[in-house]
């Protein structure tokens, strides 16, 4: 599996990674010869992306590959969370907005108010993975109801024995993505069903902080995108989820299938105007769609059916007519 090169350090220090080289915001184009002998347009300019930390590894990998094809296009990929990314997209500050949940109605309204038309492009499947410390030798699976009982605030300190009497009477430490995160929103929707989360949960927009929290406390529990579990599986223990048909572990085979209700599609949203006006944005977006499945698999997610990527490309083609 592809490693997230420098991500743990760079993301925590800066919250953003600029990938590729060159400068300038205007698009220029000249003919160049690719490594395959084909003649391709050489582009320059900027592509500005922000949003989901879950989608970030996919787009980081895409951007690294794109830099070998179009080295003079500067692509910056931020990770301010799905909600934070949409705020920038609404303000017209970005060309693409990565999201680990669909755009909300209120975000659509703000985009419409600002005259920003957009296109939703599904990229991959992810399975939100619930994890505990490897020293935890009693939790092997949780029902959806138990997961809900764990995370919903009841005004009291939660003990493992509150969930199952035979479990230790020890305080649970909670680690969750921050409120700007689409992963937080999705978990809130399908598990908490909009009830308040435990007040003492440690929230962070950086999944690496959550990984560190869970690995550092034997009574910890957390959740985040599957790729971050896969990258740290030697330090974490995943928890199978029972949605009524028996426990199901998040794996390449179950995510997008039987791993419910924590399987989901992740997306990028592109500004229609940016695609129409900036050739480098159109070119990068096309490259991202063509390579999303392969890159998703490399960083630990699950590719969509080829037909879905074909639909994405058809949507993009309509924007560039």
UniProtKB/TrEMBL annotation:
Keyword tags: Cell membrane, Lipoprotein, Membrane, Palmitate, Phosphate transport, Signal, Transport
Example GO molecular function: phosphate ion binding
Family: Belongs to the PstS family.
Positions of the PBP domain: 38-289
GO cellular component: plasma membrane
Name this polypeptide is given: Phosphate-binding protein
Localization of this protein: Cell membrane
NCBIfam families: ptsS_2
Taxonomic source organism: Peribacillus loiseleuriae
Main location: membrane
Summary of the function given for this chain in its UniProt record: Involved in the system for phosphate transport across the cytoplasmic membrane.
UniProt key word Membrane: yes
The protein's assembly and partners: The complex is composed of two ATP-binding proteins (PstB), two transmembrane proteins (PstC and PstA) and a solute-binding protein (PstS).
Pfam families, alphabetized: PBP_like_2 (PF12849)
Membrane topology: Lipid-anchor
Signal sequence region: 1-22
PROSITE patterns per UniProt: PROKAR_LIPOPROTEIN (PS51257)
UniProt cross-references to InterPro entries, sorted A to Z: PBP_domain, Phos-bd, Phosphate_ABC_transporter
Keyword Lipoprotein carried by entry: yes
């Amino acid at each position: 599996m592809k490693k997230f090169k420098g991500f743990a350090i760079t993301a925590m220090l800066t919250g953003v990674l600029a990938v590729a080289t060159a400068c300038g915001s205007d698009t220029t184009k000249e003919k160049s010869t690719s490594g395959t002998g084909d003649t391709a347009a050489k582009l320059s300019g900027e592509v500005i992306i922000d949003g989901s930390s879950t989608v970030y590894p996919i787009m980081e990998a895409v951007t690294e590959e794109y830099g070998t094809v179009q080295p003079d296009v500067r692509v910056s990929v931020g990770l301010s969370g799905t909600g934070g990314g949409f705020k920038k997209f609404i303000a017209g500050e970005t060309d693409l907005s990565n999201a680990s949940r669909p755009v909300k109605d209120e975000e659509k309204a703000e985009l419409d108010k600002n005259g920003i038309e957009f296109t939703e492009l599904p990229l991959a499947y992810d399975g939100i993975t619930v994890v505990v410390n490897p020293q935890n030798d009693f939790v092997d699976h949780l029902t959806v109801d138990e997961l809900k009982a764990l995370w919903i605030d009841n005004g009291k300190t939660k003990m493992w024995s509150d969930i199952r009497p035979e479990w230790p009477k020890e305080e649970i430490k909670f680690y969750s993505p921050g409120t700007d995160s689409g992963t937080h929103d999705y978990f809130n929707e399908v598990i908490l069903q909009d009830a308040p989360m435990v007040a003492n949960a440690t929230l962070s927009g950086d999944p690496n902080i959550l990984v560190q929290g869970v690995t550092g406390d034997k009574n910890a529990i957390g959740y985040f995108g599957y790729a971050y579990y896969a990258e740290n599986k030697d330090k974490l223990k995943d928890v199978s989820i029972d949605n009524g048909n028996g426990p199901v572990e998040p794996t390449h085979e179950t995510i997008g299938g039987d791993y419910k209700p924590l399987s989901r599609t992740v997306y990028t949203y592109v500004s229609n105007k940016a695609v129409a006006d900036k050739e480098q944005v159109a070119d990068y977006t096309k490259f991202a769609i063509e390579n999303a499945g392969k890159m998703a698999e490399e960083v630990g997610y699950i590719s969509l059916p080829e037909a879905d990527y074909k639909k994405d490309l058809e949507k993009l083609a309509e924007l560039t007519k």
